[in-house]
Write a structure and sequence with these properties.
With 287 residues, this protein is an alpha/beta fold. The chain has a single domain, classed as Nucleotidyltransferase, domain 5 (2-Layer Sandwich). Helices cover 40% and strands 14% of the residues. It has a 6-stranded mixed beta sheet with strand order 5-4-1-2-3-6, sandwiched between helices.
Length: 287
């Protein structure tokens, strides 16, 4: 049986000391341009893609060819932050490779996002969403990041590919750091820090950190993390079921929905795990 990898990236602010207030959980700010800063600061997402070694052998060369055909080189990092920021988009993509906005847009929408549709069965998504409104400033033992990491490892253990090797995008300045955020991840993985886990031991084989510029699959995970982040920033109320029985969708989030891990097409609680899960709406995957 082919070995599996789980490539994980993040999106959102790593600032945990948010202005917690009880009314934000009961009567949250309206999701509009005036309150956009609040909602962007409120969510933090870890999102990953499961890919087997057999699939990596097929998909990785194809990604390199896509990059080379468009940019003239495979050594280009596809990063959501750069794509959405006009200044960085121009500095990172348009000027160095003599591309227009229209050409880049077409490459991203047709070629890059086309990978999700073409490899719907080979690239499987699992995402973890932290809603910071529910975590107060006064913490003595653990941070919200630690709790989210604990949930991630527990849910990976429930996945059919639980014996995967997990590769995180580098979170600290030093890729080999075993302190700070990376140290927390390693400690939870090794059970040196146990935040009320259901498991005495995990099945995943290894944890390592890598710079996303060296990994096409961490770049794909970055795309996933950003789109899940945008989905909740714009339509978090819809996920909670508080504004109707139809899930409103951020446009690019819609493109990756078929790739989410699911049970009987249900992605809520399987492909997307939100903490806290306040409403438990049974949102399902669409083909």
């Amino acid at each position: 049986m082919s070995k599996s990898f789980f490539f994980v990236d993040d999106s959102g602010s790593k600032e945990w000391e948010t202005p917690y207030a009880f009314e934000f959980t009961k009567k949250p700010p309206i999701r509009n341009e005036d309150n956009l800063k609040f909602w962007r600061g409120n969510y933090f997402v870890l999102a990953g893609i499961y890919v087997s070694t057999d699939s990596i052998a097929i998909i990785n060369p194809e990604i390199n060819i896509l990059k080379k055909n468009f940019f003239g080189t495979k050594y280009v990092e596809i990063k959501s932050e750069w794509l959405r920021n006009p200044h960085k988009r121009r500095k990172k993509y348009l000027e160095p490779y003599s591309k227009t906005e229209e050409e880049l847009k077409k490459f991203v929408e047709e070629k890059w996002y086309g990978l999700f549709g073409k490899y719907k069965n080979e690239i499987q998504i699992q995402a973890f969403v932290l809603d910071k409104r529910f975590y107060s400033k006064k913490r003595e033992k653990e941070t919200p990041l630690q709790e989210l990491i604990q949930v991630l490892f527990d849910r990976v253990e429930l996945h059919p590919n639980c014996d995967c090797e997990i590769v995180f995008d580098q979170m600290d300045a030093n890729i080999k750091s075993q302190k700070h955020n990376q140290g927390v991840i390693l400690k939870i993985s090794k059970k040196e820090l146990d935040l009320r886990s259901f498991y005495k031991k995990y099945s995943h084989t290894d944890i390592r950190f890598e710079d996303s510029i060296n990994s096409n699959f961490l770049q794909v995970a970055d795309t996933v993390a950003y789109n899940v982040f945008r989905q909740f920033v714009q339509h978090g109320d819809s996920w909670e079921g508080s504004d109707g029985d139809t899930l409103k969708e951020y446009s690019f989030f819609s493109k990756i929905i078929p790739n989410f891990y699911h049970k009987n097409k249900r992605i809520a609680g399987y492909g997307i795990i939100k903490i806290p899960d306040t409403k438990k709406i049974r949102w399902s995957r669409k083909e």
